[in-house]
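Sample intake sheet
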Amino acid sequence: MSFENLKPIPQYLNDFLDWLDIEKGLSNETQKNYARFLKRFWDWLKINNLENLTPPQLTTEHIWRYKLFISRGYFQKNKKPLKRTTQNYYLIALRQLLVYFTEKDIPSLSPEKIKLAKERAEKSLNFLKLEQVKKLLEAPDTSNIIGLRDRAILETFFSSGMRVAELVSLNREQIKIGPNTKDLEISIIGKGGRLRTVYLSERAVKWLKRYLEARSDKQKPLFVNYRGKKKNSRLSIRSMERIVKRYALLAGLPLTTSCHTLRHSFATDLLMKGVDLRIVQEFLGHRNIGTTQIYTHITSPQLRKIHRKFHGINHKKG
C-alpha cells in the first residue's frame, strides 16, 4: 500500500466500526462505546495539531503523551486524575484500532505497543462461603407462592451464575421440566446480545418445578410480581435486588450481599474446586478472559493453603 494513499487516523473511524460489526460481531452499543473512547484520542490529536497524522506516522512517543493526557485528566473540568480502570477503556479502544490496521495491512504501530495501565489495587469481590449460601437459600418461607418463587430465584442464581438482567428476562417457555428431568441446560441472550448456555442443577430444577406447579397464572415471564399494582408482571431488576437483600438480612449475612454476590460466589466456588479459568469464563459469559481473572485474586490464598497442606508439609520428611 502506498503511504500517499493513507488517510489521517480519525478518518478511519467508520471503516473501523464496520469492521467491529462485521468481523468481530460486536453490538451497536459496544461500537458506540469504542467511538466514544476514540473521540478522546481525536481530541488529543487536535490539541496537539496532529489531526492529519496517518497510521504509519503514529509513534510510541505519541502513545506515551496520550497516556499522560488521559491519566492526569487534563480534559476534565475538575482536572481530576482518572481511575486506572477508566484509563484502560481509552487504551483498549486505541489498541483495537491498531488491530484493525494490522488486519487490513495498513502500516502502523503494533497493538502490543499499547500497554494498559496497571491497577494500583485489585477489585474487591463480595462472595459467600458455601455455609453462607446454604443459609441464604433456606431463608425463604416456601409455604406460599412468594416464598417458592424467591427460593427458585436464589437457587437459579447460584446454580447458573447468571447476571441479574439475564435472570429477570427469563420466560417460562425456556424452563422445560419433564417428569424425569433432573438437571437442565437453557440458552439465554447475555450481555452484548451474545448467546450462551447456562446450566441448572438438580436442586435448582426441583425448586423451579415446585414454583411453576404452584402458579395459577398464564403470564409469560418466569418470575412475576405478586404484590401491588404490578401483580403478575415481570419482576424488575430492582425488585430482584430487594429480594436478595431481604433474605440476606434474614440469614444474617453481610449487608453488601447482592445479586452480583451470588454470581461471584458461583464463580469462586468453581475455581476453589479446581475448574479451569477458561471454563468459568464460558459459564459467566465473559468475552475477555481478563474479566474472569479478577476471581483468581480471591482463590489464590486458598490454593496456597491447599498446596502447603498437601505438598509442603507432607513432603518435608522426604
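Comment: The radius of gyration is 25 Å. Residues 313-318 have pLDDT under 50 and may be disordered.
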